[in-house]
Specification:
Blueprint: H1 9-24, H2 28-33, E1 35-42, E2 53-55, H3 57-70, E3 75-84, E4 87-97, E5 104-116, E6 119-127, H4 133-140, E7 141-144, E8 159-162, E9 165-171, H5 186-203, E10 211-218, H6 224-235, E11 241-246, E12 257-264
Parallel strand pairs: 1-6, 10-11
Antiparallel strand pairs: 1-2, 3-4, 4-5, 5-6, 7-8, 8-9, 9-12, 10-12
């Protein structure tokens, strides 16, 4: 659809003013009188990349009516229109109270319109998704439960996801009941530790191939050779950034190794 459906700018701006006024009056018939019979409404949310597509006069009319009913006091303010050829844009700030609640909504958004025969053919809506800062943080941060291994032996989560990064707590050589495995055997302890780290990564939807950083703590740094062989079996060809640290002791008596990692989700 191109130049054949271009509108004279003054007429297009008048059309957008009338459309906004009809919305602010919640006049569904007046809104639809300004839309083409084969109109399309692309909502700002839904199951598809376009949000949700409503096509045809009666289908769009039902969608418009439902949207207005959801916010009985809805208003679109701070309006600004501009047009070019067969396209137009209306910027606005939406304000309204959700039906049967005290939830007050205020969002900045816009509609991108396509004109046809002097009417609105396509209404494509975009807007900011406004959320409280506390809710944003809660959504970005997620503690990962790992039922397949022992419960944490202290006040910590086995892993925490922040955005697309997974931070794995130190995974030690413990069985599902939290008992130390492989007393005096560094290979057995390293193997069990890596199994536990693997279980944590899998619960978070990740793997050793996605590990960005590994930190290994040993009570005897001379045991690095045997532990390296164990770790290589789990990483394969992937090479994480790594740090090796010797410590005087670890959290549980007899514990010889502890490993924590940071991985991509």
């Amino acid at each position: 659809m191109g130049a054949d459906h271009a509108m004279e700018p003054t007429a297009a701006l008048t059309l957008l003013d009338a459309f906004a006024d009809a919305y602010n009056r919640h006049d569904v018939d007046a809104i639809m009188a300004l839309m083409a019979r084969d109109c399309v409404f692309l909502s700002y949310f839904g199951p598809d990349s376009c949000g949700e597509r409503f096509e045809g006069f009666e289908t769009v009319k039902r969608r418009v009516a439902a949207g207005l009913a959801e916010f009985p006091d809805a208003r679109w303010g701070d309006l600004n229109h501009f047009v070019s050829g067969n396209r137009g844009v209306s910027e606005w700030v939406f304000r309204g109270t959700r039906r049967a609640t005290a939830e007050r909504v205020e969002r900045w958004g816009l509609d991108v319109f396509t004109f046809k025969d002097g009417k609105i053919h396509i209404k494509n809506t975009y807007h900011k998704w406004r959320q409280p800062q506390s809710l944003l943080l809660a959504e970005l941060r997620q503690e990962i439960p790992v039922p397949s291994i022992h419960r944490p032996i202290g006040r910590y989560a086995h892993a925490v996801r922040y955005r697309d990064i997974i931070f794995v707590s130190g995974g030690g050589p413990f069985d599902q009941d939290g008992r130390l495995v492989g007393a005096g055997d560094i290979v057995a302890q390293a193997t069990r530790t890596m199994e536990n780290v693997k279980a944590i990564l899998e619960s978070a939807g990740s793997s050793f191939a996605k590990v960005i950083k590994e930190t290994v703590y040993l009570t005897n740094i001379d045991e690095n050779g045997p532990t390296r062989g164990v770790r290589e079996r789990y990483y394969g060809h992937a090479l994480p950034a790594a740090t090796l640290i010797e410590v005087s002791r670890l959290a549980v008596p007899g514990m010889m190794i502890d490993i924590d990692v940071v991985a991509a989700g």
